[in-house]
Amino acid sequence: MPPHFNLDKEDSKRLLLEAYNFGINFYDTAIHTEYGDSEIKIGHAFNKLRDRIVISSKARAYTKSDMEKAMLSSLKNLDTNYVDLYGIHQISPTNYETAMNPDYGAICALREAKAKGTIRSITVGTHHADIAAECSKFTDIDMVQLPYNPLEYGLYDSALTAGLDKNKVVFHKILGGGMLPALCSISSLLHFALKEKPVSALVGIGNFYQLSELRQAYEHTINNENTILLPHSECNRCQSCICTKGINISKLLRYRAYALSGFHRWALTGFTKCYTLKCDRCGDCLTTCPRSLNIPLLIEEAENWFHDLVNYKEVNK
Ligand code: SF4
Ligand code: SF4
Hints:
With 317 residues, the protein is of the alpha/beta class. It contains twelve helices and seven strands.
């Protein structure tokens, strides 16, 4: 459950048990503080049902010692002595070499924990197509989490092209961090992801209404949904584009799409963090987009839009 839903401990327990009674037995979370207190709430809800459910958790820990600390902390939070799947969260080009180093990387800690039985399988989560493909080639990595929703489905196709083992993939961010149900039904989002069989999908549920929609989607409508057309979703985050100045184009355009879809505050924070190098409209990236998007124009639009948003906020303080 993303922290912005903020259910208290007892309501979370009721929601989780309702999900369990519906038949959901796989719960994916991430370490405490990074994902709010989700691990603690899962531990609280399921401490008497531990052997009936599968728990997957992860941490942004890239060295062996950081991963060892993270696993200990997760076990305590989850009130359990083993986690079914545990792994490296947000593995990326900047931390990949460290994380996968067989002597001092996070992967060593995970292998040792698996040998001891404190974790049963190793998982990774990434927003990078080539890294997803690389990680899937490790025989001891059992699950690779990749985002998949109408704003980010290109990542999966690019990862397949890079050699991703499809059998290890589990999609996440099906609801776009809980935001996309404001624009389209949960059923249509679920259908959008599951059309890529045999891939599995993790659906983040933040409240009772979303659980009930998920239930209806599963029981009645999953096979009958129309294609989703979201506004401002020209870019599918395939990551084929290259900026000669080093700008992360696909990330910027994702924040643009979220902002223009109405998620202003969240998108502004993300855009401000990742747009540290200014686009000079050189046009070098234009030939690299398979969808022939006018990337400099889209970035200029995003700059103007965010600029207006900041001014609006200043004036209306
Ligand atoms: S137009 Fe902008 S985004 Fe494209 S390569 Fe040039 S600086 Fe990078
Ligand atoms: S701008 Fe084009 S190449 Fe870049 S991520 Fe989006 S769709 Fe892919």
